[in-house]
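User: Here's a structure from my thesis project, written as structure tokens. My advisor, Dr. K., wants to see whether a designed sequence matches the one we expressed. Can you design one independently, without my sequence as a hint?
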């Protein structure tokens, strides 16, 4: 694998002492369009909260509240992680949900991919290395389409998901700010492969 040179630049994560953070994979436009189409079908049939398509992502690790120092250290470790990967392809696969059907989190999964699983494990190790006590639930590849969705009148397997591919090109550190209307995500740092 060729050696990469990382450009060192100052990182500015904001002014708060801590911020709510997560690491994620960004979703390319063609896949985002398909996910938006599916969410539109659901929205027409099911009451719930549906984020705008520009908020679609695949969470690798939810970190909770972290400090600037932790964010800086984590990004340095993730640069090393990124050196071990090349861009790879994922494909949208099928719909599923977490929780109860009357108040579900609806998601679209991707086809199983060993490179993605390795990336998720390496991201978990990186967070542990910098001593971030993050939510280390077993990784499950999914892209959230809606929350508190009432699925009592629809069968998810009746909705066709096109196997649209998208390329994973890196890891993004996001800041999540909670508002009464829902969370707002801000990309703070992207570490490319």
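Assistant: Designed independently from the structure alone:
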């Amino acid at each position: 694998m060729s050696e990469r040179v990382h450009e060192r630049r100052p990182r500015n994560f904001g002014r708060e002492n801590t911020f709510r953070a997560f690491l994620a994979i960004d979703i390319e436009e063609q896949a985002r369009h398909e996910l938006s189409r599916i969410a539109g079908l659901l929205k027409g049939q099911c009451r719930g909260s549906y984020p705008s398509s520009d908020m679609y992502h695949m969470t690798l690790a939810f970190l909770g509240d972290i400090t600037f120092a932790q964010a800086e250290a984590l990004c340095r470790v993730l640069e090393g992680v990124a050196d071990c990967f090349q861009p790879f392809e994922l494909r949208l696969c099928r719909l599923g949900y977490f929780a109860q059907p009357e108040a579900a989190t609806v998601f679209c999964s991707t086809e199983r991919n060993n490179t993605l699983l390795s990336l998720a494990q390496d991201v978990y190790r990186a967070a542990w290395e910098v001593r971030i006590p993050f939510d280390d639930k077993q990784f499950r590849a999914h892209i959230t389409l809606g929350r508190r969705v009432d699925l009592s009148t629809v069968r998810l397997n009746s909705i066709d998901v096109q196997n649209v591919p998208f390329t994973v090109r890196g890891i993004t550190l996001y800041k999540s700010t909670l508002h009464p209307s829902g969370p707002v995500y801000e990309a703070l740092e992207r570490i490319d492969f």
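When you compare it with your expressed construct, this may help: The mean pLDDT is 89.
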